[in-house]
Amino acid sequence: MRSNEVPVGSFLFWITWKLGSIFVLIVVTSVVLSSTEFNEPMRFGFLFIFIGILVVSNEELVYGHATEQGVHFRRYFKEQVLPWEAISCVKWHSSNVVEFELKGHGLFRKKLSAQSFGSKSTSEWLSTPPDVVRWLLVTKPSGADGIELVGPGQ
Description:
The protein is an alpha+beta fold. The protein contains four helices and eight strands; from the N terminus they run βααββββββααβ.
């Protein structure tokens, strides 16, 4: 990673979440399809709802890095760039979770969430903002002027 880039989320957390979701999908599907307690319409209704929940929970989780141009991220396999002008708000609850709220999007893809495994003490984890927020405050990239920064408890 170059010196003018800052990490957003972590690959390890991202891949763990994706593989865990696939594992849960396989296990739940096999249990539901082999179970005699579910009748046919209820079985497929449950699977449809469950798969919908998994898709929505995986849709906003990303990892990548931030640069002067914006946030370079991977949702699935292809790298995408989200310019700073397309972000309305950056929220964080702790130093390992950051959410980017997007401007002008419909029902889905309103935000991107980047997470990593915490390696700090509990007091640092809750009191320090994520690296990308500190980088934004210092670097002040063009296009990021109107972005609202919202920390825990705000």
